[in-house]
């Protein structure tokens, strides 16, 4: 079968000679409908965050069950499903709470398909346990694949701050990319706070307005923080969601977050923050959440089935993977790219 394989630093190749896996036990073989292309892939490819192993890329995966192992119950051939991305041990307390993204044994094992183990940029994908599947019912797997990260990650980040996202508050979203554009829709649907969106390109700011942002600010502007504070007034923003994570965006967040607010850094931009006593307003929680729980992914599927969120996608062939990654490096992807076998 065909697959997009990572062979080492900046070495990604499309190969055609991978043997199709055969599931056993609780394993499930998935015929891939779509595999999302995530900016996290570039950290693997360009920065070498995963070393010493060759594997198939793709951690945002959806498709139809092709074959199941002898111990699988509750699923049959043809069922449309998502693959929950972070694969924990399945036994520790966080895993038992459906939070495999925070598995106690994360440091001891490869962390999931496309992240050290074989992922879904291929004709077929072997999922190690049926517990990692989430049914999508009538959703198209091609469109649904990015829900597993591009929607789950912002949903989980927003949900932890939901009690603060009241109608008399402001929320700032920095970065209107693959995750940020979904965050705007989620905020529009489940919170009452007024939304201020920040990005460095005018087309993405226009996109943010379409998706429900009440205000848009170009974060390249030297006075971006002052522009935001003119909107929020002295109270500032109760929640800031940074989907970039660069030093400049973290700095912007510290300037506009309110007393007792949440500054949530989701993006993996490699930024730094030098803590000082007076650097943040009192009571601020600065967090860096990772992905979300499997039950939260079920909730995300519910939002998508109700048509309350929609991921803007571009469809591409597996053979075009390297071209897609180049476009992602240049910031030319609108929404999410999905590879379709």
Automatic annotation (TrEMBL):
Which regions form coiled coils?
Answer: none
The residues covered by the Enoyl reductase (ER) domain are 8-339
Enzyme Commission designation: 1.1.1.1
**Annotated TM spans:** none
- Asked whether the UniProt record includes Oxidoreductase among its keywords, one would answer yes
Q: Which cofactor does it need?
A: Zn(2+)
**Which keywords appear in this protein's UniProt record, sorted alphabetically?**
Metal-binding, Oxidoreductase, Zinc
PROSITE patterns the record matches: ADH_ZINC
Q: What GO MF terms are annotated?
A: alcohol dehydrogenase (NAD+) activity; zinc ion binding
Which top-level enzyme class is recorded in the Swiss-Prot or TrEMBL entry? oxidoreductase
Q: Does the keyword Oxidoreductase apply?
A: yes
The record's family statement is: Belongs to the zinc-containing alcohol dehydrogenase family.
Name of the molecule in the record: alcohol dehydrogenase
